[in-house]
Amino acid sequence: MSRETLHLTVAAIVQFEHKFLLVEEIDKLSGQRVLNQPAGHVEQDEELLNAVKRELYEETGLLLEPTAWLGISQLKAANNHRYVRVNFVFEPTSLPQRYQPQDRDILALHWFSANELLQAALPVRSALVSDAVKLYQQGVRLPLGLIQPAR
């Protein structure tokens, strides 16, 4: 595997009032509308926590702080690329009245319970989406202090 096919990504698992925040976007491979957590690539020289907060803001307009993380997920995608995804938990106690995506690639924001997500009209982008929701429901919460800053 070449480094060009290995991707470090982050995802924001946002839970508020028993619902999860998902973004609607176009899958670049299939061209299909899909649901995903706010997520994206870690930029060069970017800390993981800064990357997930940036992606959350770009894709939803929300400025929130993570409370924990769920661990690391891996996916070998249809394009033969391997994605390593660090999943962060956001559990806000309130939300601003208005927020919207800053990124034009995000078509809409949706709030789904875990059951509603299973029955959603749109598919999830990958198994990583539903796997993160399952981990959250199982009570997995890793302390942020386990992620060491770059030195």
- Name the overall outline: globular
Helix run count: 3
Helix content: 10-25%
N-to-C order of helices and strands: EEEEHEEEHH
Fourth CATH level, the homologous superfamily: Nucleoside Triphosphate Pyrophosphohydrolase
Per DSSP E runs of 2 or more residues, the count of β-strands stands at 7
Beta fraction: 25-35%
Structurally, the number of domains stands at 1
- Span between N and C termini? 27 Å
CATH class: Alpha Beta
Radius of gyration: 15 Å
Q: Note the main sheet.
A: 7 strands, mixed
Task: Please write out the topology.
Blueprint: E1 6-16, E2 19-26, E3 33-36, E4 39-41, H1 48-60, E5 68-76, E6 82-90, E7 108-112, H2 114-118, H3 127-137
Parallel strand pairs: 1-6
Antiparallel strand pairs: 1-2, 1-4, 2-3, 2-7, 5-6
What does this structure look like?
With 151 residues, this protein is α+β, with helices and mostly antiparallel strands. It has a single domain, classed as Nucleoside Triphosphate Pyrophosphohydrolase (Alpha-Beta Complex). Helix content is 19%, strand content 32%. The protein is built from 3 helices and 7 strands. Strands 1, 2, 3, 4, 5, 6 and 7 form a 7-stranded mixed β-sheet that branches. Strand 1 and strand 2 form a beta hairpin. The radius of gyration is 15 Å and the shape is globular. It starts with 5 loop residues before the first strand and ends in a 14-residue tail after the last helix. 26% of the residues are buried. Keywords: Hydrolase. This is NUDIX domain-containing protein. It holds the Pfam family NUDIX. InterPro entries: NUDIX_hydrolase-like_dom_sf (IPR015797), NUDIX_hydrolase_CS (IPR020084), NUDIX_hydrolase_dom (IPR000086). Its cofactor is Mg(2+).
